[in-house]
Every structure is written in C-alpha cells, then in structure tokens.
Amino acid sequence: MNGQTPMGLAAAAAAAVRPCRRRLLSSASTAASKAGPGAGTPLFPRLPHPYHPPYGRRLPFLVSAASQSQASQTGPATPPTPSPVSVPSDPRAAVSGNLPFFDRVLFPDSFPLETPPAEEDDAAAEAAQADEAVAPATPVREETEIEREAWRLLRRAVVSYCGEPVGTVAAEDPECTETLNYDQVFIRDFVPSALAFLMRGETEIVRNFLLHTLQLQSWEKTVDCYSPGQGLMPASFKIRTVPLDENNEGFEEVLDPDFGEAAIGRVAPVDSGLWWIILLRAYCKITGDFALLERVDVQTGIQLILSLCLSDGFDMFPTLLVTDGSCMIDRRMGIHGHPLEIQALFYSALRCSREMLVVNDGSKNLIRAINNRLSALSFHIREYYWVDMKKINEIYRYKTEEYSHDATNKFNIYPEQIPSWLVDWIPEKGGYLIGNLQPAHMDFRFFSLGNLWAIASSLTTPKQAEGILSLIEEKWDDLVANMPLKICFPAMEDDEWRIITGSDPKNTPWSYHNGGSWPTLLWQFTLACIKMGRPELARRAIAVAEERLSDDKWPEYYDTRSGRFIGKQSRSYQTWTIAGFLTSKMLLENPELASILTCDEDLELLEGCACCLSTKRGRCSRRTSKSHSG
C-alpha cells in the first residue's frame, strides 16, 4: 500500500498503538467526562482508493419488503447504477432508523436502541408513506422468557476498556471461585456474541473489539526467547488495572493478550486471525461502515494474517499444517496435521479477504496468491476429504504402494484404516468431510464445526452440502440426541484414548472435546441449514436445546453419548452457549441475515484451476468439481 510493505506498516501501527491507553487518574476522568463525543482522532487516516463496486450497493437484506413487493408487480427492475460509498459518521446510524430488517429484530420492550432522528425531505416522507400503504409493518414477535434471560446474561458478560465495551468474557459463573482463563475475552468465543449484538443493531461493541484486537496483533510476543510470525492474533485478552507509580496514586487500564504463551500446551491460536477476518466482513456488510475497512491499519492487519497463512513451506498440500490444539479443540486430540476445522475457516477467511482487500500495487500479488490457493484448496477438500458409501467402498479396495503420477491411492491409505464403526454407521445416502488427511492417515471422525463451516463457505459442492445435512438428519440420535451438537463423533476410548490424548482427564470418552455435546455449535448448524434451505432441521435442534439450557444454567458442554448429563467440568453461564442460542433464534427469524457470513459457490475458482496437471498425471479440479456437483 503506497509502496510500503506490511512489515513497515505493522511497525507504524505498533508505534501508534502504545500511547492509545488512557490513564485513569481522577483529573483525567473528570476531563474525559466533560469532553464531548468525537473528541478523539483516529490512529490512522483513511486509505484513499477508487470506488469499489461491491461496497457501493445496499445489501439485499436491507431492501424494504415494500420495494420487493412493488418490483414483483411491475416486473424485473433495472439494476441501479452504483453510487459512491456514503459512510455515516456514526456506524450505528447505518443499521438504525427505518430499516425494516431492524424493525423486526429489535424488541421495543427491552434494551431500546437510541438513534438520532432521521432527516427526510417531503418527497422521502411521501415515499415512506406510500411504502407503508403497500406493505404494512411486520408484527414484532414477543421475546420468550428464555430469550429475555439470555439477553440479560449476555449483557452481564460484557467487559469495558476505558469506558467502552470491547467484548464478552468466556463465562460469568458466580458459583465458581476458580476463574482460570474464563474471565478473558476470547476471539473465537466472542463471534456468536458479536453476531447477536450486530443483528440487534448494537454495533459499537463489535467495532471496538475488531480495532482493539487488531492493535494487539502488533504486540511483541515471545515464548522462551522465540517470537512467532507477525500477523498472529491472540487467543484472548484480559483488561487489567495497573498502578502508574509506586504510590498507587493513579491507575491505567491495559489490555493483556495471550498469544498462546500462557495456554495449555503453549499452542498458538491459528483460528483467531481467521475468525477475526470473518467477523470483520460480517460487521461491514451489516453496518455499511466501510470507512473502517478502508483504514490503513485494518488493511494491513488483513494482509499480515494472510501473509502468515500463505507463507511458503515444505508442505505439498494447499491445506494449512498446524499442531494439535490450535483451534476450538485446544487440547491434545489427535488433530495435528491438516484438520478440517482449520481448512474450512481458512477457506472462508480467504473468500472474505478477497472481497475486502483494496486492490493496488501492494496487494496484487497477495490477491493472486489468494485466488491460486482458493482453487487448489477447494479441489483438495472436495476430492480427498469427502467420504460416502461409494468412496469408502473405493478405499476398501485400494491398492497400496503405488508409485506413479496417475495413482488412485495418492496418499497411500491402507484399507485396514477403515474403522469398524464406520462400516455400519455411514448411511446409504449422504456423506461428510473427514477430520484430517495426511500421508497414510485418514481421520474418519465426523467433526461438526468443520463440516458446518464448509457448507457455509461453499468449500463443499452443493451436492456434498446436501449430503452432510442428510447424514446429520439420518444420524440425529448420534449427533444431536438430547443436546445439539456433538463436537466430534465417535469418542476415542480405551487404548486409543490413552495413546492419543495422553490419558487426558478432561477429554475422557464422550466428554468435552472427546465426543461432548456443545450447544454453541447450534448457531453454525442453523447457518448451514438456512443456506441449504433446510430451516426445519435448525428449528428441531433449537427446540431440543431450548428445553434444557435455561434450567441447566447455560452450561459449556454436555457429557455422555446422548448428551444427557451436564459436563463434569462444565462452567455454568457460558457466554458462547448463551450467544449461540440467541444468534440461532435471530437467524431463523431473519434468514436473509445469513448472507453476512456465508459465501456462494464461485465457479470462477473452478475455471481458473491452478493445479497444472496434465491429463496423464491426474484429473483437473475443474472437471472433478463439476462431476461432483452434477
């Protein structure tokens, strides 16, 4: 950007961030209280660049129902000419006022959103009255008692930094005296909270979260004198109050991030940066706050995350190579290598970044690398991770030790690896993406998050996405049962559990990450169901959860094969359990909002295949993907 490298911009960002912390002296507090809004100046200027068409149009779900009704009566409308982006000074103004979407979402009896009065001329007022005459306002559904309780608990979990909300703690359990790291704001945990606030029209907390975590990206981070690559986002952060001097006459609030140096196993959070990019896109799409997206520090943050993920290495595959415990499953569970969850989030983050990056001389090479990786990654996952009855039968008949360019068994998978449980478990119709793939190793476990996010991001073909939901419906008693949704299936037991987990007392069979049931996965399941036109499946799962969550005090996870027991080490009032439930309900009520998170099938990726394989060496991703989707 403007000839500067991401490294140079990151250094500038780091230098500008340090003085940002406000001192909480009594005199300073008094002065701040007297200061009017908008007194502060932005850390970075806006990035000047030409108008970018995708961001000059109002999003489809923000178009009034009346306009759609009129269009259906008068025939197809001519697409309007895009106009330059108009960014409101207050991001909340982009999502407040008379937008019919928020008229349906906001509940007037609780937590009303304060918005400035809209300034309309006479013509606009007459047009609004005409719209109301054509399409009467949609009645607002009254909140249930469980939803009201969930909102109260979610707001109780909000934490502030220098007087501004910046996130929600992982859990606010008044009965638990040992907080561990549950009093911190985790990036992955905050995502469902952010979505709930965004869909309710409360955008300030999400904006603050995005900017403050971006500042933490440039902080120095070391483990035993070794520093990981630039671009790494923290797993979590905590707000601490520290004295300014030895006399304790003044204090300041500081953000204390954890990049993995304090985590169990000292593992870097690979998924944090990917979730940050996904949330940034959702925020910008729902608010229209594209001034934030154009900022130099935001563009630099995206580039640093992608540069870290796209860096060259020894790997032969387009998938990301990570260690065990680098994502939601943050303990030893045998997912090291190329776990599906990371690949699905990686693909989604690449798709989101391609939409948000400003095209200039400094970003052209990065965008080209993104396109090449997207093409290779989609082919790799669709072709090699997908299993159904036909594919498993094919693996069962594999020849091994093939040395040639046109080998069928490219990863030298031994048929004996097919587990006995899978032979009887896989249904005749449907299939899923396996959990991991490496040379001579396929992890046949079903991992819910990876499969659901593969649907949401269109990493799967439409046919594969339908197959995954068909499998979940067919195996409902295994994957949902008494509480949605199994984090993985089946659980590791006996010697397998002892060897792979190291006899982890928390990941015992059918508990926690080892086959436990996690209610927070409900919102991702709802998102996938809406995208595939199967909302009835999501309603069924939400009804199951709604019967128990409030009575059970909103636990983090459930134990046993059918999810009957509250987890033995589960925290109560887990924030992403609460937020996941609210987000699921709001998505079902406003399914058009799914578009802020999902990606449509991109046929250009298949046309632009970068595999460079001749017909003698292997099949092209373009042909393979088309054959799958047919």
UniProtKB/TrEMBL annotation:
Reactions this protein catalyses: Hydrolysis of terminal non-reducing beta-D-fructofuranoside residues in beta-D-fructofuranosides
Keyword terms of this UniProt record: Carbohydrate metabolism, Glycosidase, Hydrolase
GO terms assigned for molecular function: endo-alpha-N-acetylgalactosaminidase activity; sucrose alpha-glucosidase activity
Listed Low complexity bias regions: 26-42, 65-76, 125-137
Domain of life: Eukaryota
GO cellular component terms listed in the entry, alphabetical order: mitochondrion
Alphabetical GO biological process terms: sucrose catabolic process
InterPro entries assigned: 6-hairpin_glycosidase_sf, 6hp_glycosidase-like_sf, Glyco_hydro_100
Positions of region (Disordered): 25-50, 65-92, 112-142
EC numbers, comma separated: 3.2.1.26
Enzyme class: hydrolase
Chain's role: Invertase that cleaves sucrose into glucose and fructose.
Recorded family membership: Belongs to the glycosyl hydrolase 100 family.
Protein name (database record): Alkaline/neutral invertase
